[in-house]
Amino acid sequence: MLKGIIPLFFCLLFVTYSEAQSEDLFLVHTIPSELMVKANAVVRYDYRSLDISGLRNLNEKYTRIITVFNKQGERNIDAQISYDQSRTVKKLSAIIYNKYGKEIEKFRKSDFEDVSSVSDNSLYDDDRIKYLDYTATEYPFTVKFTYEINSINTAYLPSWNPLEGYYISTQLSKFEIAYNDEVGIKKKEYHLDGYEITNNSIEGLLSYEAKNVIAIKPEAYSPMFKDFAPHLKVTPKKFYYEGYVGYSDEWGNLGKWMYDQLLKDRTQLSQSTKIEIKAMVEGVDDPIEKAKIVYKYVQDRTRYISVQEGIGGIQPIAASRVDEVKYGDCKGLTNYTKALMDVVGVESNYSRVYASSSNTVDIDKEFVTFLGMTNHVILNIPNGEEDIWLECTSQTNPFGYIANFTDDRDVLIITPEGGKIVHTKIYKTEENLQVVKAAIDLDVEGTIQAKVNIKSEGYQYALREGYQNSPLKDQELHYKNEWDYVNNLKVDDISYDNNKDQIIFTESINLSAKNYASKSGTRLLFQPNVLNRVTYIPTRYKKRALDFEIERGFTDTDEFTINIDPSLEIEAMPKSVSISNMFGSYSMHIEKVDEHTLKYYRTRILNKGYYSNEDYNSYRAFVAEIVKHDKSKIVLISKP
After folding, report:
1. Considering 200, 223, 244, which residue would you say is the last residue of a domain?
2. How many domains does the chain have?
3. Average pLDDT over residues 82-108
4. How far apart are CA 525 and CA 635, in angstroms?
5. Which of 140, 178, 172 is nearest to 27 (CA)?
6. Is 428 within a domain?
7. Does position 466 have pLDDT exceeding 70, yes or no?
8. Is 339 exposed, middle or buried (0-12, 13-18, 19+ CB in 10 A)?
9. Segments in 309-411 forming alpha helices (H)
10. Residues 6 or more apart from 485 whose CB is under 8 A from it?
């Protein structure tokens, strides 16, 4: 079949080469004006061609021409290439042009910086990166970056992203893959409608082209860029990876391949370690209690480090090696924990996930790709209707706690029988709880003293438990920043209690603030919400362009007892408030216990959700109402 395709492919390469030499692409004034709006940079020309002539033969050629307008646009140059023992760089160069298209600097392969692709403390590292280190002396300027690589691995193919991010336009982008019958190609399009994108594919050649894709600006609460930006995913139907042949026909088979080729026989441990861990669980029958003992054993004896050893950084180092050196990356530590679970008879599964604290990212159930676009590994423990998940890289996480990193997303668990897509734990709105209680004393001068207790659970536990390990000065600074609307704040005492069994983090703070209540003649204006005030109103837009997302729901409840100096009396109090809509709810109520004691009650609930851009103004109005009521005042007057 390729006999008819290859001549066409090389013909296309010739045409593309000619395009890349066009002097217009190096002249700034030839950029269409609409592409410069909202843009820090414009991709003038981006062409990636892959030729997969066999299971073990991938050739990639890449040319990129980009005009940079300012310092912020430099991050889009992206003149770098990774390589390892299986992936070799044949050609590499870069040329810098000024705004008139005149060449001002040239970089050969030897001029590129060459560094490890992982952290400096990595002890096992075969993966490296060559990157362009260029300091701009004037703007705008244009960079032409080209490379050619060969690889024996065909499992992972790059995606096509004709819109690369915010503040960057694309004038012309091309993406082509030539392939044979043995390999085959699968593809999936995402959000291509509405753009000047054409599919020129024929048998044996996948070919896409995009023109004049204009830049967009980020907006508050925007979803993940991939959730609305145009892109194309591709994967070979049959692939070769470091000595093994696999198929991407369905998740079950791919998971089976991973287990058999990457994980099998990697869980061996020394006899002494087996004896030690068995002794620790002796007399314990409950498998979950056994798992807790094993998890603490791993946390107490190992540390996380970036390790790129094994099959292309994909295979975990052997459990026996982790046991010996007492460190590992996410793969090694998860595999080690699984090995210990095996010894004590607890079923567990090595699981691949896309970890992110800012957004939840699912594996695409409908499109099987090598590693499923994942970046992390965790351990799954089957447990009836709700599985337990372990973050094996953490030395401090409570058992089964994964909020704010790998929660609420589809992951691939790898079992001896094959791969399965399973959803991780969802931390519900009512579980992401923060309860603030306080006793506040207000004197005649407006000074307050308060004893504060804050309990955090669920997702909110992750937001606050890290404070306990900070120096005292940093802890004090944290509270001054959190309550920056309280003038003259003085933090007098701080203590913490971290209950890892119940996963509740408690903060106890004693504080004071001189002249907190403002004077107006003989009156004091006192804002009762001292400790949990919303002050930020989302950005206003004339016309919101993007949908918006509330990534995680939560519940805040506040209860303050306010003791008022006997020489003061209450003249006026805010009315009770109750608001409820699709975004959540808010209520505030002040109860007069006696002449000198008030109870302040407040509840704020925010719902997780993906919302239309048309609903943004309603959400903004909801938050604005909360801000207004959180600033409400009690009027006090001196007794005659």
Report:
1. 244
2. 3
3. 96
4. 5
5. 140
6. no
7. yes
8. buried
9. 319-325, 330-344
10. 533, 535
